Structure formats: C-alpha cells, structure tokens
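Query structure, 171 tokens:
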C-alpha cells in the first residue's frame, strides 16, 4: 500500500473522514470503457508492507479512528493476499472504522472471503452492467461459481443495508 490516496478533508474539519487505499490497478476483466485499461499493472502488491503501512499511519492520521477506509483496485479482490491482512490490521487498530469496497464479484467471491467481509463489517458495492454486462465480460450472475458467492453475500449484507449494485452506463 504505497499507493494510498487520501481524500480531501471537509473545510473546517481537522481530521480525515475517508481514506482511499489503492491496492493496485490489476483486474480480472479488461473493460473497454475503463479509464485504467491502458495503465501498466504490477502483478501484485507486497503483503509484507502491511505492518509498515499501518504503523506509519500514526505519522499522518490523527483522527479518532471513526474513519471510512475504501479499498480500490483495479479489482480489489485480485489483491486478496494483501487486502485481507491490511483490513484485519486496520480494524484492529481502528475498531470504529468502516470498510468499503467495490468489486465486480466474478469468481473471486467465495464463502471464505464473504465470511471475512462480514466479520470485518464491510460495505460492498457490486459493479454489474445489467443487460449490457456481456459487453464487459461474462456475466457473473450466469456463472454458477460466481453466482453462489454473489448471492450468498447479498443475502447476508442486503438486510443490513450494506450491499449495493452499481451499474456503469456506456455505449
């Protein structure tokens, strides 16, 4: 996580409300409309940087821990080996934080990841292009493995108002 982007503070406020963590730009799709499709991509982030990143946060984050952490990619789940220990360390250090992530769902969601996301109190936005999905990639809701992971997560998070479906309109 040396690619951390920090959102601007609201005027008059002295602490950050949102911290965006860019895990990398890799994705398991190559959508024609994606602004990141031409960006060179690293194979993966280094999960060994997690401890340094979290301990160094004290140098620049002075808030009370009621912060919103957003995990970004490319596709954040491509970086699971880094994301999982990072989310665990952040939740341990800042128990009052909220965790957010947008994912394409695909075959990367499974019971183990869903359990982790629920245990760490994540809010999930599922990126899905509705009837135009086939222009982007195979529809994860038509893939049996992907569908199981998405439906499981939806059934568990929707009653808590912690899951949304986000659609990209393109032509």
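Result returned for the query:
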């Amino acid at each position: 996580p040396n690619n951390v982007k920090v959102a601007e503070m609201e005027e008059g406020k002295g602490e950050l409300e949102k911290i965006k963590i860019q895990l990398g730009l890799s994705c398991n799709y190559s959508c024609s409309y994606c602004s990141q499709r031409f960006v060179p991509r690293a194979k993966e982030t280094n999960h060994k940087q997690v401890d340094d990143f979290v301990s160094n946060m004290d140098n620049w984050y002075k808030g009370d821990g009621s912060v919103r952490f957003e995990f970004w990619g490319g596709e954040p789940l491509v970086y699971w080996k880094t994301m999982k220990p990072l989310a665990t360390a952040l939740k341990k250090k800042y128990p009052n934080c909220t965790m957010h992530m947008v994912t394409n769902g695909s075959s990367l969601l499974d019971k183990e990841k869903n359990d982790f996301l629920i245990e760490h109190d994540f809010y999930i936005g599922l990126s899905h292009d509705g009837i135009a999905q086939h222009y982007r990639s195979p529809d994860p809701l038509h893939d049996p493995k992907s569908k199981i992971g998405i439906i499981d997560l939806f059934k568990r998070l929707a009653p808590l108002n912690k899951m949304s479906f986000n659609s990209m309109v393109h032509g």
